[in-house]
Amino acid sequence: MDIFDKLTSAAKDFFIEPEEGKPAPAPTTPPTAQYGAAAQPGAPAAAGSAAVPGASLPPTQAEQRHLDHIAGLLAGDGKDFSAYVKMVKSMASSGLTGPLLYQTAFNAFAAVNGATVPALLSSAGQFEQALATDHEKVLARHREKMGESAAPGAAASAAVQLAAQEKKLAAELADLTQQVQAKQQQLLQTQQQLAEELQKTQSALASYELANSAALAELQAHRKAAASFLNAGGAAK
What we know:
By secondary structure, this protein is mainly alpha-helical. Helices cover 69% and strands 0% of the residues. The protein contains 6 helices and no strands. α3 packs across α4. The longest helix has 79 residues, at 158-236. Keywords: Coiled coil.
C-alpha cells in the first residue's frame, strides 16, 4: 500500500545516513524543521494547509536570534524526545494522524535506538524543564535591564542609566521652570512699580508745570502793572 511505502521511505530518510562518496537520495517527503525552530523563509506551505497571515514574512534579527537560541535548547543527541518529534513530523506528512501516527513513529524510533516509552517521556520532561529554566533566566535578565531588580555588583543597564538621566533632567527642568516663574513674577512686579513711578513722575511734572505757569503769569502781571504805574508816577514828578 502507498501509505506503508511512504512510511518506509520516511523512516529511511530520517535514520539512514548516505554512504560515503554517494549523494544522498532525494527525500520523498518535505523536510521538517528542527523541533521548536522557525520554518525557513520562502519554504512552500504544505499542500492543503491554510495560509497564515504574515507567515511568509521573514523573522527580524532579534526574532531569529531567539528562534536560534530556542532551537539550541531543543537540540538533542538524536536519541531523545526532540528526535522522536522530528520522526512524528516526518511521518505526519505521509498522512498518518492521531494514535496511529505516534505509535508508528515510536515503533520505528525504538527499532533504531532501543528507546522506551518512560525514557522518551522523561526526555520530553527534561526539554520542558530546560525551556522553563531558560525562561526564568531570561526574565531575570529582563528585570535587571528594566531596573526592576539589580544583581549585586552588576553594572547598571542602558535602560537604567537612561532612566536615571531622564529623572535628573526632569528635576533640572522643573527647577528651571520654577526659576523662570519666579523671574516672571519679579518682572511683572518691576513693570508695575515702573508704571507707578512713571505715573508719579508725570503727575509731579504736570503739577510743576501748573505751578510754574501760574507763578510766571502772576509775576508777569505784577511786572507789567509795576512798570506801568511806576513809570507813570515817575513821569508825573
